[in-house]
Design goal:
The chain is mainly alpha-helical. The protein has one domain: Peroxidase, domain 1, CATH 1.10.520.10. 38% of the residues lie in helices and 4% in strands. The chain is built from 13 helices and eight strands. The chain starts with a helix and ends in a 56-residue tail after the last strand. This is Peroxidase. It comes from Exidia glandulosa HHB12029. Keywords: Calcium, Disulfide bond, Glycoprotein, Heme, Iron, Metal-binding, Oxidoreductase, Peroxidase, Signal. One of its GO terms (molecular function) is heme binding.
Length: 356
């Protein structure tokens, strides 16, 4: 009798699980948990082929950037915009005029007509698009991805996006207002591993933040801890700090957060553990994409997001010409280890990210 009862229980459990997760087969044969995800398979493929051109390049980087700038216009107490709703496109005449959003108009010019042509909301093209963009960057994690956002109804106000010249306390305060801890702020900055600057210093546009901008890896966390160097013809500008390598650009905010007692140990931990960096980033990014949204009203389409290739290297390294002696130890409770390898050669010079 007991075995019969167990079999019956197992059958009932299987039937209950099936009821909770109905499957649908899309026209291309892909099986998904919700039929609404079928519509986004073509969106995914067209983003990869037509917008990103199959590479972890400038437009992919910019789509990850616009996801942050769109969503962070939010406050847990209200009055700061509606979060991840695509308002940065819908109300572009307002939000693109904010200083912190300089340069985002270029990716808006790509994503707005794309969304219109595919009949999807601006919020979805940004936040679904960000996950698709990351899938092209070796080492990037798969971020939990939802679709079904409605159209934005209000613009986010100015001052919600942290600037690279803001003091750490101001940045952490603004992010806390949106619901993020200091550790989550550091995790989100992993996006700088595939980023470059255009507007902080336009004369050296597309200068990357680390020496491996085509890979989502922990190199940006390590290289930000290296001592800065003044290079010939390289002056200091608002928002910029001295970088350790020719051609590399270091944001003042990254430099300060890497060395602040509230964030330094998390920064060092992510520099030393690429898997940890990817996991923490994925969690923080998914949280950000839901700001201001009702999760139960959205559809989880994570299963159609491609998995990125593995990063070329599994851990950070000292660039050529740099050693442990160049690290500015900032975490008071954990000494930076001496076991990392050093790149061959004498000097690393970082090339600009190619224009797309």
């Amino acid at each position: 009798m007991l075995s019969v009862a167990l079999v019956s229980l197992a059958a009932a459990s299987t039937a209950y699980g099936a009821a909770l997760a109905p499957r649908a087969t899309c026209s291309d044969g892909t099986v998904v948990s919700n039929a609404q995800c079928c519509n986004f398979i073509a969106v995914r493929d067209d983003l990869i082929n037509d917008i990103f051109e199959g590479q972890c390049g400038e437009f992919a980087h910019s789509t990850v950037r616009i996801a942050f700038h769109d969503a962070i216009g939010f406050s847990t107490s209200g009055g700061k915009g509606n979060g991840a709703d695509g308002s940065i496109i819908a109300f572009g005449t307002t939000e693109l005029g904010f200083a912190a959003n300089a340069g985002i108009d270029e990716i808006v010019e790509e994503l707005q007509p794309f969304a219109d042509a595919h009949g999807i909301s601006y919020g979805d093209v940004i936040h679904f698009g960000s996950s698709v963009a990351l899938s092209l960057c070796p080492g990037a994690p798969v971020v939990q991805t939802f679709i079904g956002r409605g159209n934005a109804t209000v613009a986010a106000p100015d001052g919600t996006v942290p600037d690279p010249f803001n003091p750490v306390t101001q940045i952490l305060s603004r992010m806390a207002e949106a619901g993020f801890s200091s550790d989550e702020v550091v995790a989100l900055l992993a996006s700088h591993s595939i980023a470059a600057q255009d507007q902080v210093e336009p004369a050296i546009a597309r200068s990357p933040f680390d020496s491996t901008p085509a890979a989502f890896d922990s190199q940006v966390f390590l290289e930000t801890l290296l001592k800065g160097t003044a290079f010939p013809g390289d002056g200091a500008h608002q928002g910029e700090s001295e970088s350790p390598l020719p051609g590399e650009f270091r944001l003042e905010s990254d430099d300060a957060i890497a060395r602040d007692s509230r964030t330094a140990c998390t920064w060092q931990a992510l520099a030393l553990d690429q898997a940890l960096m990817a996991n923490k980033f994925a969690a923080a990014m998914a949280k950000m994409s839901l700001l201001g949204q009702s999760k139960p009203s959205l559809v989880d389409c994570t299963e159609i997001i491609p998995k990125a290739a593995a990063a070329p290297l599994s851990k950070a390294f000292f660039p050529a010409g740099k050693t442990l002696a160049d690290i500015e130890q900032s975490c008071a409770t954990q000494t930076f280890p001496s076991t990392l390898s050093t790149q061959a050669g004498t000097t690393t010079s970082v090339a600009p990210v190619p224009e797309q």
